[in-house]
Request: fold
Amino acid sequence: MKSFIFHFCCMAAVGGACLCGCSSKADGDNPFMKPFDTPYGIPPFEQIKIEHYEPAFEAGLAEANASIDSIVNNTAAPTFENTILALDNLSPTLDRVTSVLFALTEADSSPELTAVNEKIMPRYTAFLDDMMMNQKLFARVKALHDNIDSIEKADERRAVEDTYTQFVLRGALLDAGKQKELKEINGKLTDLYLKFNKNLLNANNTFEIVVDKKEDLAGLPQNTIDNAAAEAKERGKEGKWVFTLHAPSRLAVLQYADSRDLREKMWKGYTSNASSGENDNRPVIKQIVKLRAQKAELLGFPTFAALMTADKMSKTPENAENLLLSIFNPAKAKVAEEVATMQQLSDSLGNDFKIAPWDYYYFAEKVRQRDYALSEAEIKPYFAVDSVRAGIFAMAKRLYGLTFEEMPDAPKYHPDVKVYDVKDANGEHLAVFMTDYFTRASKRQGAWMEELKTSWVNADGSKERPIIYNVGNFAKPTADAPALLSIDDVQTMFHEFGHGLHGMLSQVRLKSQSGTKVDRDFVEFPSQFHEHWAFDPEMLKVYAHHYKTGELIPDSLVQKINAASKHNMGFMTTELTGAALLDLAWGKVGANDSIDVEAFEKQVAEKLGMPEQLTFRYRSPYFKHIFGDEGYASGYYTYTWAEQFDADAYELFREHGVFNPELAAKMKHLLESGNSEDPMVLYEQFAGRKPSPEALLRQRGLLK
Reply:
């Protein structure tokens, strides 16, 4: 979520000379200095050079500061237009340069780009602090907030409320001394987030398991073996096989490798990631946690978790914890059943060991094959990445009338990227959509949606439409086969596309209310909601074709997939909710508490009764969601919170038809509305009721 007036992704920093010493003569050649002269304003990536970022940043900075000066020096009484709307449009130049910088820093970085980002980010933080602690600016916002009942339009009232709240949470009510202290803390935190992310990227790219005996590859799918051979060749180890921590490699080893030694090496390598040597993130975490606690105290909150939930739907960390525990405990009981079943299978195969964490994925897959006659190797040929992409487009057309036309000549930041012109049901341009699905060393792990340009309505009524992109880390195509996706990969594509639809469909007036800029604990609702269509029988018949024969996925396999949909749900739910509870626990650490990262995790696990055969979905040193920035800090619970909504909503569709036009129209309105209305109001308009937590438990097969 981007909160009100933070639509730059992060804001910029104040004042100063050009960081790189570049001459202003280059301004005329700098593509960031003017609107992009490309189809739909797509950034001209091929024209952008490293030396363009910092001069453009400086120009955008001056533009933003001039806008702020204009707001605070306006002698007219504060109005929505001359204060809130003006804040919504501080600097188009800054919008352009920061959107590209942050996109590429995550998706296609380089040492040079990282260096630029490390210079700019601290100044973003400093500017944001200066703006949010600007007393004259806050006085105008407060004046509007004090008279909020006189504002007639719902989106304007919500914008004023959100803006006031963000100013307060950023320190607007503090005295000058405490504001200075808060600025210093924020500056230190920014540096630490950069260090955490740099350590994690380096650790991910450094780790490898080298296999030189073909017999150690037994059980692995051929495409995984081929990718490991390609990775070895790329690393100068031709004739061997190299496995990495990137998800396609890591999960394939854990799920399929018959070699228990190989599985153990992978599991231990992953769960100790960024925990040693020069890339050790544990000292970084200690500093982050202490500074966050100090920040919360300054702002008058008992804990950092209380600060971070104050403006969310949950309101308090206790409310979030209560929901998580109501899911965690039945999930934990389910894990005991799953482990017992796996142990019986292992024993029957003549093994003399107790199921360990590195055995869980492997034997869960064996149980699935036994109980449901279903294996990923059987499934994957029907889910080539291009077929699944056609599936998500078909879903969007059936539900919302959207069509996607590829733009092969459009600018792109990497050859793997595909660009699409998205049109609405009337054939009018709606958005640009980009996909970037394959793993590479220049890309951080995970999958995500972001925007290179947001949407809004100009003063003359004309509409600016968004540029949305989805990023994944799927295994690359091989010489003999296209990129074939696992069940989890397919769900991930539908998930991120759900975020994408939230951005593409947005029809709100304000940049700061568009698309996914909603409460953090609501933002995952559209993404998780659209996952349900991934393996819907009616949907599968549209897009699941065998990549070699073109054969439609047989009904028998569809039935197996859906019969096995709740398989291993205890494990997945426990590791996910466990990580969310660990996150909230970190948010309750006091500024003077002693911190030992491993001991703290162990203490939380023991308190929860975490099963010994698994751990948190993310261990702290590589928990980027919560230590890479403050986006999901004390907020990882929001995935589960949002699942209340997606499970409840999908039950409505299942009852009335998964492509029911009336329900689809209501959902489309919800997605179009962004943050222009309270999310619970929007949901009740759609469903006619509040969501039921029981639907969540039913969805995960945890309701007895």
Summary: The CA atoms of residues 653 and 663 lie 7 Å apart. Confidence is low (pLDDT under 50) at residues 1-26. DSSP finds 27 helices and nine strands in the chain. The radius of gyration is 25 Å.
